[in-house]
Predict the 3D structure of the following.
Amino acid sequence: MTADPAASQAPAPVDIRQSGAPSRAVPPLVVDSVTKTYATRGRRRNTVTAVDDVSFTIAPGAAMALVGASGSGKSTLAKMITGSERPSRGSIRFGDTAVERLRAGGLREYHRRVQMVFQDPYGALNPLHTVEYTVSRPCQNFLGLSAAKAHDRVDELLETVGLTPPDQFAAKLPHQLSGGQRQRVVIARALACEPDLIVADEPVSMLDVSMRAGILRLLAKLREERGLSLLYITHDLLGARVVTDEILVLNHGRVVERGQTKHVLQHPEDDYTIKLLDAVATPYAAQESPPAR
Ligand SMILES: Nc1ncnc2c1ncn2[C@@H]1O[C@H](COP(=O)(O)OP(=O)(O)OP(=O)(O)O)[C@@H](O)[C@H]1O
Ligand SMILES: [Mg+2]
């Protein structure tokens, strides 16, 4: 993450081949002075500022954590980055693409490149669709693979996300899977689109604690092996350490702290970050050295 205003100094797209990862050019994501206000209902016409003048850059292949308490604006930022909401002010660019200007075909291609993984894997999956159908559909729709090629690709993707052997999972419906397995299906479906950036909004908070570390390690592995960028949204600062190298702390829509994840966790400066750290009680805590405070 680069301290901003970053727009003018955005890093150029990197050819990931240089680092030995798959040959793809992933562009930087630049969030430049973004504000989002919503009109509130009621007799008085007030507004709520969900995101307030936020700037950051995710360099190609980097992983950034966005942390903050409930209502701090994390999901609103995610929605603007994925193009489902427009900023009230400021701009979001992914390489040459100005996200808020996208329409129809451009937005469709952007949705292929920027994939979202949601908090609730059950709600994110159609209960009537098998795993095979769920993962093969984007292979056919976005990548134009034939049904036979998509079938092979589903096997590969299920292996990648640890649902092995694939033929044991392909015919299953969501209710026949555990929460962690469902989230792996959601991740396989995201990967099917060959994305450049994954935005994961609290991807483990609804899972049993025993499954959380496995999903986080999977996200870390995918980022490393595929060279894709990751925005990991969470309340849990210690979980952020498993997958990210940079962290941005939001409070009431504003950035209150940013820096290298390990450094911020060990030497938090802002009172709000310190409070968030004090509130952490996760399974990772036992595996990680406690913050030096
Ligand atoms: N569509 C909307 N209309 C009005 N207010 C909204 C809307 N979406 C979000 N907000 C408000 O914006 C603020 C930020 O919400 P947001 O969902 O981004 O928080 P969050 O950090 O993701 O919280 P959580 O951790 O609970 O998911 C909140 O005060 C919320 O009530
Ligand atoms: Mg949220």
Summary: The two ends are 24 Å apart (CA to CA). The chain is about 35% helix and 25% strand. The domain at 7-13+27-287 is CATH 3.40.50.300 (Rossmann fold). The pocket of magnesium ion (ligand 2) is lined by residues 74-75, 201 (CB under 6 Å).
